[in-house]
């Protein structure tokens, strides 16, 4: 039984978005469990830090770390915070992004899969152009996502909607220090180690449809490439988050 939940949100120059993201995360924390949320602020040059709401820990990074290292640093901070109240086998770690909004049942849906035996949950995201006034991503993105859907799950991985039991996370080595695709790499590590990864159709997260993102090779790069404005190519994996 999961008794503690930790949520990590990496952010870089997200003063316009981070408050709404973190407010949605705080509202989604399930009752009856210990919980902690951390925002990992990566070399921010704007007012992101001042927009973090009360109740959220803040880690400030000034080094040129990869997004995988940022997520890992945040999750290990959460594990230390929760260590006196829960052990890794009863702690669920969640990851989302600062340009995303989680639904009120987000954490609950993850914990329901955990109770059914999942060691990790890879959830879906729905692009919401209204979050940034971005153009609709168009039919090609819809086709890419749809091609990975199955009645019992899907073939996509997004750092904006990923959960893992802490003991499995530690045993698999955590998020690797990669520039992009850290979400796919973690899921690959978990599966290689024999852990059960559920690709969930519920517990979706709304995320920005912007074509200029913060992490190279992330979802924004895919959208830019589909729009014909990108110059870094398609990110690895079926659909990249992060």
CATH class: Alpha Beta
The major beta sheet can be summarized as: 7 strands, mixed
Q: What does the average pLDDT come to?
A: 89
CATH architecture: Alpha-Beta Complex
Number of domains: 1
Structural class: alpha/beta
Strand order of the largest sheet: 3-2-1-4-10-6-11
The first-to-last residue Cα distance is 29 Å
The radius of gyration computed from the alpha-carbon positions, rounded to a whole number of angstroms, is 16 Å
How helical, in percent, are the residues?
A: 25-40%
Question: What series of H and E elements makes up the topology?
Answer: EHEEHEEHEEHEEEHHEEH
CATH topology grouping:
Spore Coat Polysaccharide Biosynthesis Protein SpsA, Chain A
The number of strands is 12
Give the overall shape, derived from the CA principal axes: globular
Question: At the fourth CATH level, what is the homologous superfamily?
Answer: Spore Coat Polysaccharide Biosynthesis Protein SpsA, Chain A
In the predicted model, the low-confidence regions spanning at least 5 consecutive residues are 229-238
How many DSSP H or I helices? Answer: 7
GO molecular function, one term: glycosyltransferase activity
Subcellular location: Cell membrane
Protein name: 4,4'-diaponeurosporenoate glycosyltransferase
Keywords: Cell membrane, Glycosyltransferase, Membrane, Transferase
